[in-house]
Amino acid sequence: MAATTARISSSVSRPTTPLHPTPPPPCCSFLPKTLPKPSSLSLSSSSSFTAHSHTPISSFFSDDDCSSDEKPREECGVVGIYGDPEASRLCYLALHALQHRGQEGAGIVCVHDNLLQSITGVGLVSEVFNQSKLDQLPGDLAIGHVRYSTAGQSMLKNVQPFVAGYRFGSVGVAHNGNLVNYGALRAMLEDNGSIFNTSSDTEVVLHLIAISKARPFLLRIVDACEQLKGAYSMVFVTQDKLVAVRDPHGFRPLVMGRRSNGSVVFASETCALDLIEATYEREVDPGEVVVVDKDGVQSLCLMAHPEPKQCIFEHIYFSLPNSVVFGRSVYESRRVFGEILANEAPVECDVVIAVPDSGVVAALGYAAKAGVPFQQGLIRSHYVGRTFIEPSQKIRDFGVKLKLSPVRAVLEGKRVVVVDDSIVRGTTSSKIVRLLKEAGAKEVHMRIASPPIIGSCYYGVDTPSSEELISNRMKVEEIREFIGCDSLAFLPFDSLQGMLGTQAPNFCYACFTGNYPVEPREDKVKRVGDFVDDGMTGNFDSIDGAWIPANRIHKHQRDNEFEGSVL
Predict the structure, then answer these.
(1) Is 412 within 8 Å of 440 (Cβ atoms)?
(2) DSSP readout, 332-363?
(3) DSSP H helical segments within 55-103, as ranges?
(4) Which residues 6+ apart lie within 8 Å of 502 measured at CB?
(5) pTM of the model
(6) Local structure of residue 413 (DSSP, 8 states)
(7) CA triplet 516, 517, 521: central angle to 5 degrees?
(8) What is the pLDDT along the chain (567 residues), one digit of tens a residue?
(9) Which three-class secondary structure state does DSSP give residue 185?
(10) 301 included as an active-site residue
(11) Whose CA is closest to 509, among 449, 426, 451?
(12) Strands (E), 340-465
């Protein structure tokens, strides 16, 4: 398939000063600290390179698929590496570890010979990159990104990291999150002459950096971020700097670690650090900007930040169980969720099973507390993509059956407790219950390791509109009847907060309460048929989305105030 190329040049010279170790400074100081010297730091300047983009999307979609109202999508993972001669390869491996955060696009930008070189593509990390592509990304400074998105002709152009040149050089950025004032910022920039190449909210950040009057570059980032509202954990790269930024509420995770040769690593989750043998040091704090260059590591508070509001769904569903997120073990959180369910919603049963993979750890906790054996009653196929060919004679619950297979020997004649992480629309849950009963389960009792979801997320999680959320439309007993299970219980919200203890105020629960730390200005709705519900229904053709004006009553009361408060 064809590749497109674009040269990116810069007048900024790459510093070559050696690095030396000193102890780390406290968060939010602006004091430099230097790093241990890497074992071999490659700063070759013998040749020029071009940026490459892998472009397979044209083989899947026609020109007619282009939407006239493209809007940003979410659910991403980011990584940044400074000071390692194999930065792009380590970035590649770290993105593998973060693949669960986005499966439809991946990219890496590295710095070599004062040029930012980029390779991006549609697909899994292993599909976008191979040995020859990584050979085109030399250098000791790199950032990477994996993304979830919807299908369409313009999908490739939205794959990050983005690279842009402006009068003081070039900058690359990878972003995890979602900006709730994206529409207003873009409109303001376009009114002032900015031209956009993508439909991603991340591009707004690059435009804000370019038009900023602040000096030096670090303060341009601060100036840009002060205009953003919503969730953003970002890594930036210039010819000589790696910069990590987290929004003042800290919605999305971002951690910092070091490898044994002194190179610095930023990543969305600690599982990425583990794979490339980097030692976890700390989180990037909410509202913090961390800069890594030849002088070491510098930390600056972005702005006076309010109480942290970290996404609780990182612990419920998104992060891998082996990660430490917001200072807590994801595995331990999910295990305790299951124990709480066993204590507060017990039921006579013969076996406990999980909806794999995200329900497994909570099911283990439930089984251990209830004194009932845990078994694999559902086997998940990891080899089914998002497109498939269904036979002309329709198979009921075809999408679920492709991905989940019941084990009759475990289920037949048994009273079964099935633990899942959440219920969104309820359609997949109803199919799972039917699947279990068809396999011979005598009773099916659903236990959900999260409170009922009643509100959409606007901070980087792809959820449907509140009207489509079953818990926003039905009471628990009504949901039970809809799903067809014998009993249904959710993790009580008060118990969730009790488990978090003194950290409870530091989490965002908007999807459970409808109380938003940053008021959404634009509401996202997803068309029926996409696979928000655990990715088990639909195909590429059925994925789409749009943004519409918020339909909340109080939104109209804020319109006039909002129009004048963008900057």
Answers:
(1) yes
(2) HHHHHHHHHHHHHS----SEEEE-TTTTHHHH
(3) 87-97
(4) none
(5) 0.79
(6) T
(7) 60
(8) 433 333 333 333 333 333 333 343 444 433 333 344 333 333 233 333 333 333 332 332 233 333 333 222 347 999 999 999 999 999 999 999 999 999 889 999 999 999 999 999 999 999 999 999 999 999 999 999 999 854 334 478 889 999 998 888 899 999 999 899 998 999 999 999 999 988 888 999 999 999 998 888 889 999 999 999 999 999 999 999 999 999 999 999 999 999 999 999 999 999 999 999 999 999 999 999 999 999 999 998 876 667 899 999 999 999 999 999 999 999 999 999 999 999 999 999 999 999 999 899 999 999 999 999 999 999 998 877 655 565 666 677 777 888 899 999 999 999 999 999 999 999 999 999 999 999 999 999 999 999 999 998 888 887 778 888 999 999 999 999 999 999 999 999 999 999 999 999 999 999 999 999 988 865 444 344 333 333 333 332 332 333 333 333 343 443 344 334 333
(9) helix
(10) no
(11) 451
(12) 351-354, 378-380, 404-406, 415-420, 443-448
Q: How far is CA 156 from the centre of its chain?
A: 18
Residue with tokens 């039921």: 347
Taking the C-alpha atoms of residue 180 and residue 72, their distance in angstroms, rounded to an integer, is 10
What share of residues in the chain are helix, strand, coil (percent, to 5)?
30, 25, 45
Phi, psi of 193 (to 5 degrees): 105, 0
Burial class for 134, CB neighbours closer than 10 Å (0-12, 13-18, 19+): middle
Task: Give the position of tokens 């030692």.
Answer: 279
Q: Answer for the pair 388, 539: CB distance below 8 angstroms, yes or no.
A: yes
As given in the structure block, the two tokens for residue 84 are 């390692």
Amino acid, single-letter form, for residue 499: M
Distance of CA 84 to the CA centre of its chain: 25
Cis peptide before 161 (omega within 30 of 0): yes
Alpha helices by DSSP H, listed for 98-213, are: 125-128, 131-135, 182-191, 202-211
Yes or no: say if 190 and 530 are a contact pair by the CB < 8 Å rule: no
Residue 44: which residues within 8 A CB-CB, separation 6 or more? 112, 113, 138
Q: What's the half-sphere exposure (Cβ side, CA atoms, 13 Å) at 44? A: 10
Angle at 138 between CA 135 and CA 141, to 5 degrees: 140
Choose the catalytic residue: 27, 28, 76, 311. 76
Contacts 24+ apart (CB under 8 A), 181-184: 181/228, 181/229, 181/230, 181/521, 181/566, 182/72, 182/230, 182/522, 183/521, 183/522, 183/547, 184/521, 184/562, 184/563, 184/566
